[in-house]
Amino acid sequence: MAKKGWDEFEIGAMLRTFDGKIDDIAGTQQEDRAYSQSSSYTASVADWRLIKPIFNKDYCIDCQFCWVYCPDVSIISRDKKLIGVDMDHCKGCGICVEVCPTNPKSLLMFPEQADEETEIASWPKKDEEEA
Amino acid sequence: MAFDKMELRDIEVWDGNFAAAQAMRQSQIDVVAAYPITPSTPIVEGYAQFLADGYIEGEFVMVESEHAAMSGCIGAAAAGGRVATATSSQGLALMSETLYQASGMRLPIVLNLVNRALASPLNVNGDHSDMYMVRDSGWIQFDAFCPQEAYDLNLIAFRVAEDHDVRLPAIVNQDGFMTSHTAQGVHTLTDDVAYGFVGEFKPMNDMLDFEHPVTHGVQTEEDWHFEHKARQHNDLMTKVMPKIKEVFADFEKLTGRKYSPVEKYDMDDADVCVVCLGTSVETAREVAKEMRTQGIKAGVIGLRVIRPFPFFEIAEALKNVKAIAALDRSSPNGAAGMLFNEIAGSLYNTQNRALLSGYIYGLGGRDLTKAHLVSLFKELQANVDAGKVTTQLQQFIGVRGPKLAYL
Ligand code: SF4
Ligand code: SF4
């Protein structure tokens, strides 16, 4: 968002999330919504993150637990299929990994600088003790 | 309108709580969310009774605490309604976290604060500890010295707070028990005239406006927090006082009752003066009148508006005074009193550097007697005669045991 002076804000800790009227917000995907420039959606919080979730679709059963539990709506799911993580808004809390029920987990936390392809190639094997 | 009008006599015998409740009724508040606490309980009880009897078309939300009360008020105000509540002391302390949400979100809620001491030790009687506790919370603060003023200032508070250039919540203070439970004759306005003065509520950026969706109470972090707070402070420092004066003037035109951010009594030629708040102002006026018969040119200043602090009006009112006593009814807890500090701040860069001393009095409902004020005025006169403060700068009035004085 363009930087504004203190006298350029509307009064109140208030943002206009959308440009204009919103009709079917529940039925409209984020990428199709008319977010305004002042919407929190335009603000990246990626720099808060020290560790990041990496998603391995080989093990995923599309149970949607991670999507339900992510406090920042950062798990991207389309047609009930997990397709990735919104890395602009994921804060790296690891909740999605905690709730993932598969063995091995389909989501794991890695250092922010880890390379996705490398990590997926050496994904942990099934944990026998847990099974 | 779908509610009943109430027939009032020109003068009704009301205590401060009932006067505030009547003003809330006449303002036709949409939502009151409240939790009972002494001595402010009768305000929301009165409102609830008016609602039950069909005099109000609104909602009364019973909640489990004062924190929830103000939270409910904030939600209702953000949703686009006229909102008010009442509290005191510990209730305000519990509510205080949410006061900052209300002011930061620029929601024009009116809070009747019936001033009472803060525990511990537990005490239901009046002092100004609660008023002082939230003085930096971004709320406009008015102070009523009697039931009439509790009535009038409620009507005025809605007008100021809801102005679209202001959009800040407002507290109307009155002294616990002394004002809240003492019945006096109160000049009333008819329902139509009172509502006409307050005006219809015009929501701004309300959440229930689906044509223009907004997010209230957003997270801004270091990016924009400072700018939002700067804007709020700027509006308090520059916009609110002119608006208060404008509404005071309109109220005077309507009722003949004149209010001023700084209420001056016999200040034209005063050499010595007492600055105080609440019911003490009336006592001080009585004593000042008596001091004049003894040759002491005494005056009194009562602060009608505490936030924004009336720096310029105070400096103007005190410009010819030689000795000033700032009376604070709250434990200073390791500092000079609020009035002492802020009056010092108001005068520091002016031509008149009057002799200033601070007095702490009346904690937990301890009386401030006329005898106390007589000796105080005499002390001020002694300071004038000596050309310096002859005592320590901070003294305690009426505390048992050895005299306390500091600084
Ligand atoms: S790490 Fe936390 S914020 Fe990021 S996707 Fe997982 S649950 Fe959401
Ligand atoms: S919780 Fe695990 S298995 Fe379930 S959808 Fe998310 S990644 Fe897939």
UniProtKB/TrEMBL annotation, chain A:
Cofactor dependency: [4Fe-4S] cluster
InterPro entries: 4Fe4S_Fe-S-bd (IPR017896), 4Fe4S_Fe_S_CS (IPR017900), PorD_KorD (IPR011898)
Keywords: 4Fe-4S, Iron, Iron-sulfur, Metal-binding, Pyruvate, Repeat
GO molecular function, one term: oxidoreductase activity, acting on the aldehyde or oxo group of donors, iron-sulfur protein as acceptor
Sequence ranges assigned to domain 4Fe-4S ferredoxin-type in this UniProt record: 51-80, 81-112
Keyword 4Fe-4S part of the UniProt annotation: yes
SUPFAM superfamilies in the cross-refs: 4Fe-4S ferredoxins (SSF54862)
NCBIfam families: PorD_KorD, PRK09625.1
Protein name per Swiss-Prot or TrEMBL: Pyruvate:acceptor oxidoreductase delta subunit
Organism of this sequence: Sulfurimonas denitrificans (strain ATCC 33889 / DSM 1251) (Thiomicrospira denitrificans (strain ATCC 33889 / DSM 1251))
TrEMBL record, chain B:
Pfam families per UniProt: PFOR_II, POR_N
Keywords per UniProt: Oxidoreductase, Pyruvate
InterPro entries: PFOR_II, Pyruvate:ferred/Flavod_OxRd, Pyrv_Fd/Flavodoxin_OxRdtase_N, THDP-binding, Transketo_C/PFOR_II
CDD domains the UniProt entry points to: TPP_PYR_PFOR_IOR-alpha_like
Molecular function (Gene Ontology), one example: oxidoreductase activity, acting on the aldehyde or oxo group of donors
GO biological process, one term: carboxylic acid metabolic process
Domain Pyruvate flavodoxin/ferredoxin oxidoreductase pyrimidine binding: 23-237
Domain named Pyruvate:ferredoxin oxidoreductase core: residues: 270-371
Protein name per Swiss-Prot or TrEMBL: Pyruvate:acceptor oxidoreductase alpha subunit
Organism from which the protein derives: Sulfurimonas denitrificans (strain ATCC 33889 / DSM 1251)
Lineage of the species this protein comes from: Bacteria, Pseudomonadati, Campylobacterota, Epsilonproteobacteria, Campylobacterales
